[in-house]
Amino acid sequence: MRAVMIARQALERSVTSPETSIDRITIDPDVCNGRPVVRHMRITVESILDYLSAGETPEEIIRQHPMLEPEDISACLAFARS
């Protein structure tokens, strides 16, 4: 239950706009064994969701992975909801 609350709070804090979509999430059998990843990078959606459920903020995740953008975090959450 706490993980769901944290993910919802992260979604509210992250950038959300009509341009934010799950199009940033890619699935390629040659990247991370076909698991969903962010923009063809080797950062899985599952990893981002795990970080959020552990209580990390989107800002902390982006600081640790500077190639990510706030829209990537939103896309991971949208992908999980879909």
Keywords:
82 residues, mainly alpha, Arc Repressor Mutant, subunit A, two-stranded antiparallel ribbon, globular
Name the poorly predicted regions.
14-19
In oligomeric terms, what are we looking at?
single chain
The mean pLDDT is 85
How many individual helices? 4
Helices and strands, in N-to-C order?
A: HEEHHH
Q: Going across the major beta sheet, what is the strand order?
A: 1-2
Main sheet: strands, sense, barrel: 2 strands, antiparallel
| Strand content bin | under 5%
Q: What is the number of E strands?
A: 2
Q: What's the CATH class label?
A: Mainly Alpha
Ends apart, CA distance between termini = 19 Å
The CATH homologous superfamily is called: Winged helix-like DNA-binding domain superfamily/Winged helix DNA-binding domain
CATH architecture title: Orthogonal Bundle
Query: For the CA atoms, what is the radius of gyration?
Result: 12 Å
| CATH topology annotation | Arc Repressor Mutant, subunit A
Shape: globular
What number of structural domains do the residues give? 1
Helix content: 40-55%
Structural class: mainly alpha
